[in-house]
Write a structure and sequence with these properties.
26% strand, 29% helix, alpha+beta, 2 domains, 4 helices, 5 strands, three-stranded antiparallel beta sheet
């Protein structure tokens, strides 16, 4: 978001109408910025291609109604991480055995982090393969 700040701040000091945003969120590999109006959306469309991204990242501006609707499942495993719980596929296999009515084999890991305070691991799964999601 630092790169976006570099282009937003000068625009907000100009004499023309400044771009305005309602909010932004970050979830897994997606940064969602909500524009306040169509003028801001069009401004963002011209600026995003000029941003420097981190390695392997791509940025695209899409309308909210064009975004994928993902079904997410969050899992919190409290306590010290155990060697076998660090393996995402082990966690998915356990979930599949404990939830036979869900189609867990179709799930992929959207986000995973190990936390210190409180100690534990957070997993966020989505119901599609990440390669499929990135292709869309």
């Amino acid at each position: 978001m630092g790169e976006l700040d570099k282009i937003v701040l000068p625009a907000s000091c100009s004499k023309t109408k400044s771009p305005t945003f309602r909010y932004w969120t970050h979830s897994g590999e997606i940064i969602r910025v909500t524009c306040d109006d169509d003028l801001t959306l069009e401004w963002l469309k011209t600026k995003v291609p000029t941003l420097k991204t981190w390695e392997g990242a791509t940025l695209a501006v899409v309308r909210m109604d064009e975004l994928l609707k993902l079904t997410k499942a969050s899992l919190w495993i409290p306590g010290e991480a155990q060697a076998d719980l660090n393996e995402k596929d082990v966690v998915l296999r356990r979930l599949e055995r404990q939830n036979p009515k869900l189609y867990v084999p179709k799930w992929c890991t959207f986000h995973h982090e190990t936390t210190i305070d409180p100690k534990g691991q957070l997993f966020v799964f989505v119901d599609e393969d990440m390669k499929t999601l990135k292709a869309k």
